[in-house]
Structure formats: C-alpha cells, structure tokens
Crotonase/enoyl-CoA hydratase family protein (Paracoccus caeni), 266 residues
Amino acid sequence: MRRIEDLELKNILLKVDGDGIASVTLNRPDKRNALDIATIEELVDIFTTLPRAGVKAAILRANGDHFSAGLDLVEHHRENRSASDFMHVCLRWHEAFNKMEYGGVPVIAVLKGAVVGGGLELASAAHIRVAGPDTYFGLPEGQRGLFTGGGATIRVADLIGKARMIDMMLSGRLYRGQEAVDVGLCQYLVEDAEAKAWEIARNAAQNPPLSNFAICSAISHMQNMSALDAAYAEAVVAGVVNTQDAAKARLEAFAKGTANKIKPDA
Ligand code: 1HE
C-alpha cells in the first residue's frame, strides 16, 4: 500500500491537514491546468492512495485563475497519437476519475474560471462542486474537432441531461452563474468558493468514515445497476452502515433527546 509521503508529484500539490482533510491542487497555472498525461497519472496515484490513508475528505482545487482548460491540446498534438494510443490515454483518465468518484472519500471541487472539456470531466467526478462568481462551464470538443474521452458522456450527461450536453458540445454554449446551478453543473455558487468548500469538507469529515464511504461510492455504483439490484445492494450497504459502532453513540444521544435536531436554524 503506497503512503501519501511516497507519492512522486510534479503537477499537483498534495497536503493533508491535522483534521485529515486533503487539499489536492492542480499546479500548472501557466498552462491553465491543462491535463497532460503526467497530471492524470498523478490523479490516479493520489485518489488510489487517499482512501486507504485515513483521509476524511478532499478538496480539489487549482492554482491560477482557471480550474482547468481540459485535455492538454499541445501535448495531444505533439504526440501525434494513434487511435489506440488515445484510447489508452482515455482509459487512464477513467481510472483517475473512477478512483475519485468510487473511492469513498468525499471530494469537493473548488471551481473558478474555465471548467471546460476535460476540466469539466474532472470536476464532474467530484461529489460536490462549488463555483465562484467567475466560473464558466463548457464542452468545446466540437469546436476543436474532438470528442469527450474522460467520462463526460456518463457524468456530465448525468448532471445536466443529454440534450444540454449535446447543445454544449455542438454549439459551444457556455454556462455560468445561477444558470449553471439551475442546470446542475454545480451545487453552490458563492463569492468565496474556497471557504465554502472547506466548510462543507469539515462538516462532512464529522460523519463516520463508513457512512461517507457508502454515500460517496454506493450511490454511484447503484446508478449503474437495475432498480432491483440497486435496492438489494442498498439493503446490504444499509445493513452494514446502519449497525456500525460509530453510529451507536449518535443514536443513543438522539434517543436521550440530547442530539442536534435537523432544523434549518439548528
Ligand atoms: C493550454 C490549454 C490546453 C491553455 N492545452 N495548453 N480545451 C480547450 O479548448 C480550452 C483551451 N484553452 C483556452 O481556451 C484558453 O487557454 C483559456 C480560456 C482556458 C484561458 O485563456 P488565457 O487567455 O488565460 O490563456 P492562454 O493565453 O490561452 O493560454 C496560456 C497558456 O496555457 C498557453 O501556453 P503558452 O506556452 O503559449 O504560454 C496555452 O497554450 C496554454 N493552454 N489551455 C494545452 N487545453 C479526454 S478528451 C477531453 C477533450 C477536451 O478537453 S477538449 C477541450 C480542450
């Protein structure tokens, strides 16, 4: 099992604070955090390692003015890849983003500037997306003569529906502001996305890890199942999670009337 301190990272900064919250920072601002293959491999390593390292939540953020300009178009052009080469590149993107989505650690993305193409594919693998006022979302693949290869056909279509996704890809339509929230590209639109993401992460980190594991992996897995199989899997997961020791003190407090209440101003 690899340890966080053993990871060799060049394009991503990784820190874990004393509360077990990791910040994963895309760090190629001069290239607008375009995703080259080295960055994708670092994402694979990071999101393979974090769930086994006791990390309670992760903030996915970026240095510079833009979250990510998507596929590194210059590298792609320079490498002159064959169809088979690029298919394998896409499989590494899927590996990275699946590790994020199915790893069981809550990932909260802090979005700003361009969240486009593969940048949106990356953001859509996070569990919660928090956008700042200057964030915009696009799928300019059509304009570049490309197609999505990092899971957008699954995740972005799931967030916004296929008609909107096709519109974005065909017409180059960009979404931003409240409209981006309304269509489902992000869940929060706030002045200070960074602060909001940390607040969400710190709250989520208070939940028992097994509950977060189920929330952040079981729901995604169940979406891939028939309703009958999903209901069965839900019962099995709930059997394990809802009887865990970590829940007992919380349930006892509720039974005694000392637990917090679920009210808007509580
Ligand atoms: C890049 C990339 C990139 C910037 N690959 N190098 N994505 C796109 O089509 C978006 C392409 N990027 C842009 O439209 C703009 O760069 C931005 C709107 C994001 C930012 O504009 P700006 O004016 O701040 O920066 P810039 O001057 O365009 O770029 C600064 C540098 O970043 C420059 O490099 P330099 O060496 O000349 O300084 C750019 O080349 C570099 N850069 N974006 C490589 N994307 C799995 S399939 C997924 C398919 C897709 O993702 S398609 C969408 C691709």
The two ends are 42 Å apart (CA to CA). The chain is about 50% helix and 15% strand. The chain has two domains: 4-204, 225-256.
